[in-house]
Amino acid sequence: MKSHWDVMASIDFTTVEVWTTSGLTTLYLLFVMELKTRRVDFAGCTTNPNEEWIKTVARELTNSEDCFLKSKHYLIMDRDATFSKSFRACLRRESVKPVRLPPRSPNLNAHLERFLRSWTSEFLYKLILFGETALRRAVRSYVTHYHTERNHQGLENDLIVPMVRPTDMDAEIETTECLGGLLRSYRRAA
Q: Which fold has domain 2-188?
């Protein structure tokens, strides 16, 4: 599988409950991961992941020069009914082959499942979210933290987005915080 990582991505849903003016609401969040680099894209969220919404997501992921699935040939997905025939057909039209996993096999989408587990334990369980806007802002903050500040064992303890300058080992150690100090990273000052 590693010999094909350049052309593979995976996709999966998770749910989050947020407080809104109408009470506790379940939102469905969709994430896509580039397997080689572990780069993650937050593809969107909705209270109703219907066929029209998921087809729109497919068009956004495949439609332009800077789309997330550019140069990808395979998209790994589970058998969630939301990944409908029309969604898969939309991917095929753009030369992305949907690869549906066997039932009850989350280990076959392990990298994205691990991201979702990290996201839940490091971030989600520590927040009470009020509304979709707050959720989107918090997700974007976490994804930025995940890419630029969090080391990844599967990438030999490197960052997904490398630092612009090499670390000065004699510099003071700085703390970077986001989401009110919930997410922290430590590094030497540039």
A: Nucleotidyltransferase; domain 5 (3.30.420)
